[in-house]
């Protein structure tokens, strides 16, 4: 049985118990959330060394890190290094989005090395194989697509992005709307090109039951992709985006009926004042299914700093109810991320997720900040470094300019907390 089927039958799995311990909640609340469709545990039965995580309502906001080879750069070794950096920096899941080199070997190496859930976008491999065999993405067959999906599920992938909502009606809405950046989703572009060339409906939509059957066998969580996500602020919350979302709402319910776990992906580039409305719209249309957002990026001009534009949007989205943040690195829109980009991207998204968890009242979130505040009050540098998101970096920064007193070099002898502590006779801990 899948996690969803077990939950629906009142069974609490070992994975549900693990998630409950992590979240400091009762296992029954996890089982109930999965049964109702507002929590998922991506856990392929073939991913043997997996540490399961829960994503959804009432849980800590999770962070995903993307990496992968391109046609220009990347090897198994570079991607395993990025995997290690992502996990060490606190990523809860990773996605292998490779489009260059030996995709199969890269994916299998990542799954074998990863103890966190691994996601993929199978249409990438299907499209690239079609180029190798037929010199064109649009010549891939329906069986080619589903054979790749089954192969990746069999390999142990825990969740897959599938662009099932890129339908003919969504393409019509795209044409009628008119956009500045058209389509920026790579998987969405693959599907649109195939559909227009072959004059056919999206095979993932037409053959959705076939997709559900494969996912059910391996207990793979479907991540319903947003192929029509806006690629700039001017395109946000338009008819094409909403048309796709309406289709996904129906597909969510079909997945639940089939015993398959499902979450929904969201935009994209969204103005700050539209983010909350986007989250609430998704939650209403998709009946509370977990919401997985890319960013959202709140401005288009942050090239080189888009980890910041995404963290701003991610904090607002998660506070409004989004459950899962896909990180954005500083190199977004500019180049393939390197190891340091991965680290910085994860930390930025973790800050956004944690800020939102405080706002949502997630259990234990505010306690972490209280401990840090207490350590700061006592000038306890060891504890501050220990409590920071990236301790080795915090220690390096603190040591950069040695202070003349127990305070840091920002204020030195004029540290406000030190001075007031002396006035009030409050002792400090000198470390």
Q: If strands are numbered along the chain, what order do they take across the biggest sheet? A: 3-4-5-6-7-8-9-10
Query: How many domains, as an integer?
Result: 2
Give the overall average pLDDT. 95
- Quickly give the structural class: alpha/beta
Alpha-carbon Rg, integer: 23 Å
Q: What is the CATH fold-level name of the largest domain?
A: TIM Barrel
The low-confidence parts are: none
| Portion of residues within helices | 40-55%
The CATH architecture term of the largest domain is Alpha-Beta Barrel
SSE string, helices as H and strands as E: HHHEEEHEHEHHEHHHHEHEHEHEHHHHH
Q: Calculate the terminal CA-CA distance, rounded to whole Å.
A: 53 Å
The CATH superfamily of the largest domain appears as: Radical SAM ThiC family, central domain
Largest sheet: 8 strands, parallel, barrel
Give the tally of β-strands: 10
Number of helices: 19
CATH class of the largest domain: Alpha Beta
């Amino acid at each position: 049985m899948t996690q969803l089927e077990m939950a629906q039958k009142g069974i609490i799995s070992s994975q549900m118990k693990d998630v409950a311990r992590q979240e400091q909640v009762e296992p029954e609340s996890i089982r109930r959330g999965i049964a109702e469709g507002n929590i998922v545990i991506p856990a392929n039965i073939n991913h043997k060394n997996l540490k399961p995580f829960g994503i959804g309502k009432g849980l800590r906001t999770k962070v995903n890190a993307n990496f992968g080879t391109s046609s220009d750069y990347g090897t198994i070794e570079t991607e395993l290094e990025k995997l290690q950096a992502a996990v060490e920096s606190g990523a809860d899941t990773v996605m292998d989005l490779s489009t260059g080199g030996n995709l199969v070997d890269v994916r299998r190496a990542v799954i074998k090395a990863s103890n966190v859930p691994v996601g993929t976008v199978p249409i990438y491999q299907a499209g690239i194989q079609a180029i190798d065999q037929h010199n064109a993405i649009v010549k891939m067959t329906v069986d080619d697509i589903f054979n790749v999906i089954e192969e990746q599920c069999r390999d142990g992938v825990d969740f897959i992005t599938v662009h099932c909502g890129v339908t003919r009606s969504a393409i019509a809405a795209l044409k009628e709307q008119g956009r500045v950046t058209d389509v920026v989703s790579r998987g969405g572009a693959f599907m649109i090109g195939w559909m227009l060339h072959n004059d056919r409906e999206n095979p993932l939509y037409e053959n959705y039951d076939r997709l559900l059957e494969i996912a059910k066998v391996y207990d793979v969580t479907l991540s319903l992709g947003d192929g029509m996500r806006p690629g700039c602020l001017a395109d946000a919350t338009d008819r094409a985006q909403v048309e796709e979302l309406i289709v996904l709402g129906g597909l969510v319910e079909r997945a639940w009926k089939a015993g398959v776990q499902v979450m929904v992906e969201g935009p994209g580039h969204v103005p700050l004042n539209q983010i909350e409305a986007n989250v609430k719209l998704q939650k209403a249309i998709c009946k509370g299914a977990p919401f997985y957002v890319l960013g959202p990026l709140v401005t288009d001009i942050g090239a080189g700093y888009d980890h910041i534009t995404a963290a701003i949007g991610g904090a607002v989205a998660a506070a409004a109810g989004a459950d899962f943040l896909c990180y954005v690195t500083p190199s977004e829109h500019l180049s393939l991320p390197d190891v340091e980009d991965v680290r910085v991207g994860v930390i930025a998204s973790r800050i956004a997720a944690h800020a939102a968890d405080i706002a949502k009242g997630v259990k234990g979130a505010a306690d972490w900040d209280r401990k840090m505040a207490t350590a700061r009050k006592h000038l306890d540098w060891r504890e501050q470094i220990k409590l920071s998101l990236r301790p080795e970096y915090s220690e390096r920064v603190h040591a950069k300019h040695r202070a003349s007193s127990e305070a840091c070099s920002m204020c030195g002898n004029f540290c406000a907390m030190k001075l007031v502590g002396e006035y009030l006779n409050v002792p400090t801990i000198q470390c």
